[in-house]
Amino acid sequence: MSNSPQTTMVKPPRKPRQPFTQKEDEKLKQLVESLGDADWTIIARCMENRTPRQCRDRYKEYLMPSLNTSDWTPEEDNILRQKIKEYGKKWAIVCISLNGRSETSAKNRWRLLERRESNMKNEAKIAEACSSPDCYDIPPVQPYPQMIEPMYVPYFIPQENVRFEKMIQPVIPTSFVRDPLPPQPPRVKFPSLLDICPNLVCF
């Protein structure tokens, strides 16, 4: 056996699908009128760069004179829902009960109905949640405790007969420690006993 290098098959890049032009639509209509819609292979040979399936889908979905392109009615929507429940998304069978509706039209209409029903369900859930009493059950905000001004209690030193004032700060409840407090009055620095009575002797 010879060790020949193996070659890998590379698929050519797929050409992007080009939409039908107005000239192609007119030509396709004339070919169907003259040749009929039984053999799309013959019709595709007369069209440039078009496959038989492209010609068939273009004519039956958009160009056929018997197509119903008017707005959908509520009766047609009900028929569409019923047939999809019976046959599933078999659009060729579903469209038999719809007067002149194409498969693409029925498919797009069903997607639109699904989006509408989904949006209605979401809106109903939001309305139900907001109508419950727990929706706006916000605990009341506790007011700040009323600040009490510091009290100055006078007292005397019997030896020197000197009057002092002792400042007593108010006690703040612990339940309000987490809340920001209003600014407190500045503290007053009082002189010490040695500053007032330097000759004071402590025993």
TrEMBL record:
Segments for region (Disordered): 1-25
Pfam families: Myb_DNA-bind_6
Gene3D superfamilies to which the protein is assigned, alphabetical: Homeodomain-like
MF (Gene Ontology): DNA-binding transcription factor activity, RNA polymerase II-specific; RNA polymerase II cis-regulatory region sequence-specific DNA binding
A single cellular component GO annotation: nucleus
Domain Myb-like stretches: 12-63, 64-114
Listed SMART domains: SANT (SM00717)
SUPFAM superfamilies: Homeodomain-like
PROSITE patterns according to UniProt: HTH_MYB, MYB_LIKE
InterPro entries: Homeodomain-like_sf, Myb-like_DNA-bd, Myb_dom, SANT/Myb
Keywords, sorted A to Z: DNA-binding, Nucleus, Transcription, Transcription regulation
Span of domain HTH myb-type: 13-67, 72-118
Entry's Gene Ontology BP terms: regulation of DNA-templated transcription
Highest taxon, organism lineage: Eukaryota
Protein name: Myb-like DNA-binding domain containing protein
